[in-house]
Amino acid sequence: QDVAQETSTGGLPGDARIDALLAAAHERYRDHDEGVVADYIPILSTANPAWFGLSLTELNGSMHSLGDSEIEFSIQSISKAFVFALACDARGHRDVHDRIGVNNTGLPFNSVVAIELNDGSPMNPMVNAGAIATTALLPGETAAEIWESVLTGLSRFAGRQLDVDEEVYRSESATNQRNRAIARLLESYDRLEGDPLEIVDVYTRQCAVSVTASDLAVMGATLASGGVNPVTGLRVVSAEAARDTLTVLASCGMYERSGEWLFEIGLPAKSGVSGGIVAIVPGKGALGAFSPPLDTAGTSIRGQRSCAYLSRALGLNLF
Ligand code: DON
C-alpha cells in the first residue's frame, strides 16, 4: 500500500526504474518464511526454501533479472498455459472451447469431483484434467510425436532448447496415480483423445521440463506480444491463440483463487507447484517469479507477493 503507483499510461517505465522496483520487491519478501515446499512429488521437497528469483521481459526484448532467476526448476503447471496456446493454434478457438472448456471449477487443480460434477467435462485447460486432455490435442499420431510437439513448442516460447529434468520426471511418474485415474475417468466419459496412460506420460514429461524465472518472463512476454517471441523475433502461435490463452489464464490460471488473484493483481497468470509464476501484461511484457514455498492452493508465496507489489508499483493492473 505504501507503493507509489506509476502514472504512465503507455509502456513500462525506464530500465533503471524497473530494476529498482525488482530489487525493492526482492528485498521486501526474501526474508518471508511463510509457505510449504511441495512434497507430493517427492523430489520437489529437496528444493531450497530460500531460493527467490524475479525476472521481467519487455516487448522490445529487454530483460531484467534478479536473485535466483537463473536457477532451473521444473515448469509443472505453468506448462499448461503454453501447451494450451499450442492447442489453440493447432485446433482453433471453437474446437478447444468445445473439447476442453473455459470455466473455473472453483476446486483444487487435481480435483476428481470437479469432473464428476460436470458430466465428465475436463472443464478448463489449467486444471490437471483439462491439461491432460489439452496435451492430447497437440499435433502427432503417436505419443512420441505429441511429445515432440510439446517440447518444440515450449522451447520456441522460451527462445532456447529446453530439456526434461529426468529426476523430476521419474519422481512424478512413480507417484502420479491420481493423474492416471483422472485420465481413465475422462476416457470413461469419452473426453480424452488417444491412450490415457500414454497421454499422462507426455503430460508428466511436460511438467518436468526445466526452466528459469528468466525463461518464464520470455515465455510470458511471447503471449503478451500476441504470439511473437520478443527475444528471437519468431512467431510461436497466432495472435488469436495468444489472446484465447490470456483469457483462460485470467479466469482459471490460479485455480480456485483466480478471482482473488485478479482482484489484487489484475493480470492473467499461472503458477506451478515447484514455485514458479508467470504473470502477463498484454502489450507490455511479463513477469517471471520463482520461490518454492507455496500457499494451500499451490502458488508460490514470495512469487505472488512480488507480483502484487510490482503490479501496483508499475501500474500493471489491467482494470
Ligand atoms: O500434475 C501435477 O500434479 C503436477 N505435475 C503439476 C501441478 C501443479 O503445478 C499445480 N500448480 N500449482
Task: Describe, in plain words, how this protein is organized in 3D.
With 319 residues, the chain is α+β, with helices and mostly antiparallel strands. It folds into 2 domains: 15-73 and 211-313, Beta-lactamase (3-Layer(aba) Sandwich); 78-207, DD-peptidase/beta-lactamase superfamily (Beta-lactamase), CATH 3.40.710.10. Helix content is 45%, strand content 9%. It has 13 helices and 7 strands. The chain has helices spanning 15-29, 78-91, 93-99, 113-117, 128-135, 143-158, 166-173, 177-188, 196-207, 213-224, 239-252, 258-264, 301-313; strands at residues 53-58, 63-67, 73-74, 210-211, 269-271, 276-281, 285-290. The protein has a 5-stranded antiparallel beta sheet, with helices on both faces. Helix 5 packs across helix 9. The longest helix has 16 residues, at 143-158. Residues 1-9 have low confidence and may be disordered. The protein binds 6-diazenyl-5-OXO-L-norleucine (DON).
